[in-house]
Amino acid sequence: MHALYKILASHAGVDSVTPGEIVTANVDFAEVNDLYLQVLKSYEAMGGGKVWNPEKITFIFDHFNPAPSIKAAENHRQMREFCFAQKIPHLVDINEGVCHQVMPERGWVRPGMILVATDSHTVTHGAFGAFGTGVGSTDMASIMQTGKLWFRVPEVIKINVDGILTKGVMAKDVILKIIGELKQDAAVYKAIEFTGSLIENLSVAERMTICNMTVEMGAKTSYIQPNEEVLKYVRERYGDDFTVYQTDPDFAYAAEYHFDVNNLVPQAAAPHSVDNVIPVSEDHLGVQINQVLIGTCTGGRFEDIEVAAKILKGQHIPVHTRLIILPASKEVLSRCLEKGYISDLMAAGATIAAPGCGPCLGVHQGLLADGERCATTSSRNFPGRMGSTKAEIYVVSPATAAASALEGKLADPRKYL
What would be the CATH architecture of the domain defined by 271-416? Predict the structure, then answer.
């Protein structure tokens, strides 16, 4: 069996599972974000009562933080009251950051677990050897009552990535290249495992970026076998009580793909599809950019802001360009403050926003007007994602975003590193 199948089997109380099989499995941890007040409505419609285990549930206010509307504030009020009434200790209010970053930081994510959340980018947690997946409001309400969920066992696609990245080329460029080649329907309700020499040497943050965007290919979940750096990260925050599963050598993958990234150049997903991927090269340089966003669960970790600060230190963005820095969490923001990166970025003309998701889904902290173009480290670029349906979004790496902010146009970051 694959490691993911062993996770499902162990949580379903069976010896083995096979692709296509439906199993009911115990859930280790469940997260509700502040978009989904419907979870509470569904919960009451199902009979309400006490949650199955308050220690294994968290509510995280990350999409609407601080509340940008009366409706958002009402969502927060009702969710707070629910947590207080249910004695749920893990209420993460508006001052902490994006759920996918906060949960690993707090030790709530570990190898061998099943983690569900009301957000499609829960696939990020495959970076820790976990089965992480997004669910809807009704499923989450059921989980909160029973601690269980049904799963259809997904087929697994293997993507092998070998090579060494040149300076200025990041993990974000790797996953954009893969999505551009395989397209956004390549893994619908399948799992994706990443292997290869490049993957083995990626940091925790880079692994999270790679796994994060598998949902843009339709993936149900993702997986990277944990290395020692990942295990150290988990032990420091959680302890040693977890299981690292191994895939059997003779496991048959549904498909296998191979990528050599030795000569990879910076990539960009051009409007209006995340698989409309182009190289940031001579043919595409010079597209004027009105706004740059560096942040979110896809590109707002410490290493992402660090590379932006290195490019922009001592420089200043042009008057016709806006730069928004959106750290993925308060912990990330604190580390960047300690290193002086926030001061450097502010001196370069950046606006520092509260850690969260706001502009990524187009609700606050930096929306786009008609005809504007944005270079963003977030994950999606369909019309209306970040504001006006008449705006254009380029999805890029943090390095490319910083270089584009500096030049006021789509730019190659390699000359700055």
Answer: 2-Layer Sandwich (3.30)
HEC profile of 301-346: CHHHHHHHHHHHCCCCCCCCCEEEEECCEHHHHHHHHHHCHHHHHH
pTM strictly above 0.90: yes
Beta strands in 227-271 (DSSP E): 255-260, 267-269
Q: What are the domain boundaries of the chain? A: 3-258, 271-416
Given the structure tokens 């597209």, which residue do they identify?
A: 287
Cβ neighbour number for residue 311 with a 10 Å cutoff: 26
Across the range 228-253, mean pLDDT stands at 96
DSSP string covering 104-132, please?
HHTT---TT-EEEESSGGGGGGGGGT-EE
Q: How many CB atoms lie within 10 A of CB 404?
A: 32
CA dihedral angle for residue 321, residue 327, residue 332, residue 336, rounded to 10 degrees = 20
**Closest Cα partner for 109 from 86, 93, 133?**
133
Domain 3-258 identical in fold to domain 271-416: yes
Q: Please state, in angstroms and as integers, the Cα–Cα distance from residue 200 to each residue in 147, 244, 285, 287, 392, following that order.
A: 34, 16, 32, 35, 35
Among the listed residues 246, 211, 203, 243, the one whose alpha carbon sits nearest the alpha carbon of residue 225: 246
pLDDT tens digits for range 71-109: 999 999 999 999 999 999 999 999 899 999 999 999 999
Residue positions counted in the chain = 417
Of 3.30.70.270, 3.40.630.10, 3.30.499.10, 3.90.190.20, the CATH number of 3-258 is 3.30.499.10
Alpha carbons 9 and 249: distance in angstroms, whole number = 18
Tokens of 417: 């590193």
Pairwise CA distance, residues 175 & 184, whole Å: 12
367-409 pLDDT, tens per residue?
999 999 999 999 999 999 999 999 999 999 999 999 999 999 9
